[in-house]
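Task card 7
Instruction: Convert sequence to structure tokens.
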Amino acid sequence: MATNAPKKPSAVGPRVAMPEQPAAERIRNFTEVALGYTKEQAMEEARRCLQCKKPLCQQGCPVSIDIKTFIAKICEDDLEGAYSTILGTNALPAVCGRVCPQENQCEGKCILGKKHEPVAIGRLERFVADTFIAADSCEEVTGANACVVERNDLQVACIGAGPASLTVAGYLASRGIKVKVFEALHEPGGVLIYGIPEFRLPKNIVAKEVSALKDLGVEIVTNWVGGKTITIQDLLDEGYDAIFIGVGAGLPRFLNIPGENLVGVFSANEYLTRVNLGRAYNFPNFDTPTYMGRNVVVLGGGNVAMDAARTAQRMGADKVSIVYRRTQDEMPARAEELHHAIEEGIEIKALCGPLAFNGDDQGNLVSMTVQKMELGEPDESGRRSPICIEGATEEVPCDMAIIAVGTRPNPILLDATPDMELNKWGYIKANEETGETSIPNVFAGGDIVTGSATVISAMGAGRRAAMEIADRLLLCN
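Output:
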């Protein structure tokens, strides 16, 4: 770190607000809501950093970014140095700066946050990534001015092109190891492309970071379905030195209540994939029309529920409501996403549990029956359990319902790999430190191991696996 690092501020100012589109304007477009810091705003926010001797913020980051140093370099107006510092452990900084739950991770550990608002670490990471233009693709990924020498005798396969696999690919390719990524869909990015809406994570941001990996030598092939087009055994037979499985957990969960087969009832996976990956939000420029609801209900209280509700509103719904069994305070969604949803006019119908979807004689959804709830004692996770209020039900009019109550592992690849050891929930069992599965030199990470989690936690798992793979291959060859 530079010797002219910024001194600790004598007086801590307020956190610099993120410029945003006004709610009244953004509810009818898919342009990014958060507009990003200007250089002046970023410098002002960076100066709030205390430059702690023991930066706990780094401990809160799943990929261990040297946060103290990259913020110091912003203060020194050394954006290239800041970018290089971030890239030391994170191959997707523009993505992470937008979608990571910093309030529960790096910012949640920030010492300044004990008495004041924490440093806006995620916003600063986004500013650096968006501002710095790499001299070439190798520098964008590795932070170095030249590409490493390729090792043509080493090759690794990644199944799935989501954040975990892309992290593995970037780490290994930056060390000269050839990587080939097999993706089932027609576009790489995984949940970054099919799940997260354009107004939160623009597609061109993902495309830029994927392009940098390709220019570094990572080969990405699409329309290859793990377990069908390609199997683990196929890859081992072809001579791959290691395999990483990062296929996510994309099979939707349903409620198993009457009426789920009515026209107008969707899983969030299907709805968001059609709008995001299929670019239905840009119809007719992209010929992927989607079901248009006027009175929409979304079931769930997480980030996916927020994404589905805000997307439905932007697609033309007159009214959008989120139905949740607990109170608003118990919702697991990021505070920022919930705040934006409410600001945009999304109604929160808390303490309501779904009982049935009701249809007309043509099989079209017309309403949903909900059970009124109250909070009881905490459950095993520490959250207060919802309890039915006897005889208290309500019929909620709706012509479209989106179910966003979680996902489970897709069985296609797992069924084709009978030797793979799974846990009791059907996810892959993997070593927590290395990511290695029950099959030697086959690794896994992300949602296929943990169940639904965050982008950055998947990247953290990918990085741990990549470090183990690199150590084995480079030390032994």
